[in-house]
C-alpha cells in the first residue's frame, strides 16, 4: 500500500487512473488469496471481484486516497496564509481554461471530494479549524466507506 500511495496528496485522479488502481488492487488481492479449487469439478478458478471484496474487508485504494487527501486538505487549510501550499489551495486563477473539456486540477479534485464527503452547504474552512470535529468527521466517513 505505501508504494501505491506515494505522493497521493497531490494526485489529480481521472476515471481512467481510478480504474487502473482498482485493476491493480484486484490483481494483488488475487495473488494474496490465490485461486480456489471447485469441489465438484476439481478445476481451479480465479476469484471474482465480489469474492475479493468479501475476503478483504478494508476500503479500496481509491477511497483511501480520497479520505487521506481530505485529511491533507484539512492540514493545509489550517496553515498560515503565507505558506505556498495554502496559497495554492485558495488561489483563484485569472486565466481562462482552454475550450473543450479542460483537465481537472488538484483544486478541482479537492472540490469534488468535499462535495462527496461533506454536506454541500457547510463552510468547510471553518469546520477544518476545529481539529477534533474534522478528525471525527474523517473517521466517521472512513468507517462508512468500509464495505
Order of helices and strands: HEEHHHHHH
Which spans of ≥5 residues are poorly predicted at pLDDT below 50?
Answer: none
Strand order within the widest beta sheet: 1-2
Helix content, binned percent: 55-70%
What Rg is obtained from the alpha carbons, in whole angstroms?
A: 19 Å
Number of structural units classed as domains: 1
How many DSSP H or I helices? 7
Average pLDDT over all residues: 77
How would you describe the shape? elongated
Oligomer: single chain
Q: What share of the residues does DSSP label as strand, in percent?
A: under 5%
In angstroms, what separates the terminal alpha carbons? Answer: 18 Å
Structural class by SSE content: mainly alpha
Q: What does the largest sheet look like?
A: 2 strands, antiparallel
Structure in a nutshell:
This protein is mainly alpha-helical. 56% of the residues lie in helices and 3% in strands.
Please describe what this structure looks like.
With 147 residues, the protein is an all-alpha fold. The protein has one domain (8-145). Helices cover 56% and strands 3% of the residues. It is built from seven helices and two strands; from the N terminus they run αββαααααα. The protein has helices spanning 15-33, 49-55, 61-77, 84-90, 106-117, 124-129, 131-145, and strands spanning 36-37, 44-45. Strands 1-2 form a two-stranded antiparallel ribbon. A hairpin with a 6-residue loop joins β1 (36-37) and β2 (44-45). The longest helix is centred in the first third of the chain and has 19 residues, at 15-33. The protein is elongated. The model has no long low-confidence stretch (mean pLDDT 77).
Amino acid at each position: 500500500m505505501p508504494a501505491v500511495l506515494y505522493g497521493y496528496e497531490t494526485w489529480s485522479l481521472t476515471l481512467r487512473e481510478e480504474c487502473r488502481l482498482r485493476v491493480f488492487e484486484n490483481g494483488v488481492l488475487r495473488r494474496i488469496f490465490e485461486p480456489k479449487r471447485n469441489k465438484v469439478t476439481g478445476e481451479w478458478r480465479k476469484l471474482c471481484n465480489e469474492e475479493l471484496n468479501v475476503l478483504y474487508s478494508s476500503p479500496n485504494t481509491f477511497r483511501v486516497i480520497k479520505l487521506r487527501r481530505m485529511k491533507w486538505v484539512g492540514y493545509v487549510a489550517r496553515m498560515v496564509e503565507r505558506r505556498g501550499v495554502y496559497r495554492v489551495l485558495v488561489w483563484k486563477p485569472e486565466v481562462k481554461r482552454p475550450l473543450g473539456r479542460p483537465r481537472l486540477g488538484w483544486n478541482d479534485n479537492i472540490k469534488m471530494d468535499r462535495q462527496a464527503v461533506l454536506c454541500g452547504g457547510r463552510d468547510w474552512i471553518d469546520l477544518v479549524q476545529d481539529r477534533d470535529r474534522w478528525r471525527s468527521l474523517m473517521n466517521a466517513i472512513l468507517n462508512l466507506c468500509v464495505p
